[in-house]
């Protein structure tokens, strides 16, 4: 019990100090980039007889699948800073981090302006990370329908409560930080999700491990569906994982499980507002709180930050796009500078 209490005190000490000095203004002026570009991590070749049902394209051959797309910007003079890797959540792509639905600065640009090399990924089989059409074409040619990949999309109505814009569509919280007037632009960011058809482990996880090692250390910043991925990455290989920031994770590691991979990694788990009003989210906060307590009791350095506890209210699940998104990003930069050693 004494160890748990000490761990909790340490975690609480981390959060307010890092969040008290966050800037609220928008960085301005030219953005100086040392380099920018894109590449892929991971991937494997497969042979298939079902690549096409069109006469102009051969049905048989070899394709590459399960590669993860990575787009990066390295600020001028920023090569010594710890890179950040931004990993999007359900039904979305790396666009999550690039800008807000109403056109304000996103976290990718903000972190770059604060001097940190920034890497934005598309999860495997999402966005610019290619999928495998074999199952679809096989069924078109007469194979059993079970060959089809399982895919889903979140409707505007169902996503409303998941993203906590209001308790039910189309109601909104009176103090909501999300730019609801630009809602139509947010819906355009959403794409079909192939998570249920992914192999185990999800190929995004070993790709993140490879990317973290390639960068010789990085802070993995995840969101929602991908919230568990940095923890799974550390369980696979701690080398290269300089820190973890899990923003409103769909799940945290089991507090009763093996915590050894997390003891040497600074960890922040971050939640916005209204969490306890939703049966989807309240248990996740409870589970993450238990995980953070156990990590600290085991000698780790983890913190759980719930924004209303810091006097910051109105944040939706999409807090990287909320009106105060840069205030929150500033908090994260300050936390990384105080806690992360590459």
TrEMBL record:
It comes from the Bacteria. CDD domains: Esterase_713. The keyword Signal applies. Residues 1-20 form the signal peptide. The keyword Chaperone does not apply. Keywords: Signal. This is Esterase. It comes from Paeniroseomonas aquatica.
């Amino acid at each position: 019990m004494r160890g748990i209490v000490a761990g909790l005190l340490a975690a609480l000490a981390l959060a307010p100090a890092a969040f008290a000095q966050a800037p609220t203004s928008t960085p301005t002026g030219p953005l100086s980039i040392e380099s920018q570009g894109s590449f892929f991590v991971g991937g494997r070749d497969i042979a298939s007889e079902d690549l096409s049902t069109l006469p102009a394209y051969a049905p048989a051959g070899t394709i590459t699948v399960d590669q993860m797309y990575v787009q990066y910007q390295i600020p001028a003079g920023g090569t010594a800073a710890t890179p950040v890797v931004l990993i999007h959540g359900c039904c979305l792509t790396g666009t999550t981090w690039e800008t807000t639905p109403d056109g304000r600065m996103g976290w990718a640009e903000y972190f770059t302006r604060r001097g940190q090399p920034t890497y934005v990924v598309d999860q495997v089989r999402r966005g610019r990370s290619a999928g495998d059409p074999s199952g679809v074409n096989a069924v078109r040619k007469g194979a059993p329908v079970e060959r089809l990949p399982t895919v889903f999309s979140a409707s505007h109505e169902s996503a409303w409560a998941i993203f906590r814009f209001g308790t039910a569509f189309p109601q909104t919280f009176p103090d909501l930080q999300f730019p609801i007037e630009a809602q139509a632009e947010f819906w355009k960011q959403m794409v079909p999700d192939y998570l249920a058809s992914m192999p185990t482990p999800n190929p995004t996880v070993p790709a993140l491990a490879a990317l973290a090692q390639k960068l010789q250390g990085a802070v993995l910043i995840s969101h929602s569906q991908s919230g568990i991925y940095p923890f799974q990455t550390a369980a696979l290989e701690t080398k290269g994982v300089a820190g973890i920031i899990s923003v409103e994770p769909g799940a945290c590691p089991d507090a009763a499980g093996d915590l050894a991979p997390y003891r040497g990694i600074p960890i922040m788990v971050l939640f916005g507002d209204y969490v306890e009003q939703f049966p989807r989210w309240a248990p996740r906060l409870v589970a993450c709180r238990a995980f953070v307590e156990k990590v600290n009791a085991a000698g780790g350095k983890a913190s759980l930050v719930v924004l209303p506890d810091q006097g910051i209210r109105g944040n939706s699940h999409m807090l990287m796009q909320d009106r105060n998104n840069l205030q929150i990003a500033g908090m994260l930069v300050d936390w990384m500078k105080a806690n992360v050693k590459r």
